[in-house]
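Reopening closed ticket. The problem is back. First fold of the pair:
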Amino acid sequence: MKKILMIATGGTIASRSGPEGLEPELAPDELLSRVPEIRDFCEPDCVQIFSIDSTNITPEHWIKIAETIRDNYGKYDGFVVCHGTDTMAYTAAVLSYMVQHSPKPIVLTGSQKPIDREDTDGRINLRDSFLYAASGTASDVVIVFQGKVIAGTRAKKIRTKSFNAFDSVDFPELARIRDGKIIPYIVAPKRETPEFYLSLNRKVGLVCLTPGMDSGLLDVCFRLNDAVVLSGYGTGGIPDGEYYGFYDVIGKWQDKGKTLVVTTQVQSEGSDMSIYRVGRGLKDRFSLLESYDMTYESILTKLMWILGQTKDAGKIRELFYKSVNYDLIG
């Protein structure tokens, strides 16, 4: 049987109710004890690297997860990362960049209700995650949740309370798991060895436009960060003209070597700045990057990964448009 390492980080799945609400308290062996049938199809092992509400996740936590996978890579056939749902999509995305082309599956999962509750979704999510991690066709970074197998760069939490919390945005699910059986839809060819990257630049900011917004907010975000993601309207429209003054701010910081990525607030179908003047005018004037169909989570974490490797503008552009784990299609 395959050996699978569970990396516990806290989250709702490991939580108990306290005087101030849910807090992660359960040890990883307690989680495994709630799903004894896992031992019928694999040899599980576990390690606790931290225990936090995923709202408190930082890039340093991401590096610790990647280091744990790297240090144990030769000992196990796959990995299951137990994680809180609120930032799980960010962690799945960043691990897709930090551990690229992994022939061994790295599965993230969690739950909407603690595993020690009778009505929990944690037991089935944990079982399905181990089942997928122990399968022969699985590889790379994925989220397994409520029977869905989603590429790590394509997941988004779309519901705050329902068990069906995650969707795959603008890309098909890789597989479904039903009644203990894996139904694969997309099976990627496996590489022989993974590529590990353990450097991240956390100085990446996001500005989401609202009508009438002061361009000073964008200016501050550029001042504090090495790259800014500007989330516009529709297909990627950014207001022009003197009222807003965004062009002046963008020009100032581009001359200082800052990176700008333009995306859209619309969840599905991505940006296309060539359609309207409010998009094309900006793209023609400045050397910016367009996100197309990438998710917020992938854009932000990909920039952290890229800027952790290089400061060269040409190399930044090259790496941004290099597709990793299905993050950019076209």
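Second fold of the pair, where the issue appears:
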Amino acid sequence: MRNFITIEGCDGVGKTYQTRALKEYCLQSGFDVVFTREPGGSDIAEQIRRIILDANNSAMDDLCEAFLYASARIQHLHDIVKPALSQGKVVFCDRYVHSSYVYQGIARGLGLDQIVALNKIAVGDYMPDFTVFLDLSPEQAFMRKGGADKTDRLESVDFSFHTKVYQGYKSLIAQDPSKFEVIDASGTKEQTQTLIRSALVKRGVFPC
């Protein structure tokens, strides 16, 4: 089994904090793991990330956005994920194909089948073994965060978009719940981190 785990959730849910806390825990525990993110993760992919998220690019076509995400993903896989997995390392990725499914396929209205097909070309068989989903509604997430980041093109989209994103994640999970670990992210940061680690123990990624 390739130990490829992705972390997903709506904007403002706390993925960045939780991923960083998990990385610190792994380093302290001496686990041989790789942490990376999308879009980005490697030099070329990070350049694409800046184009995608730049608030000045508000006129970007939705299909262009979808292809940019897929392009960054191809490069990121080549540079970071595939080499690490080939060495037997555990890889944690902050966002991956499920983000494209819900953000572009569902919330942007491009069609889930079309975005799944596009990303099949991009990733081939490199799908996550399972996905950790931080479950918190957009209302709760942005309230806790203090509002959307206006410099981030995706966060600054109207609120109905983020509601569609959340509903999209829920729909994907319902279709194949065995591929997800749903984490209640409504508690404190520490409580959420404890739930994530417990889920990883249950999945056999971490020792008991």
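Update: turned out to be a display glitch only; the data is intact. The longest helix spans residues 62-86. The chain has a mean pLDDT of 93. Please close again.
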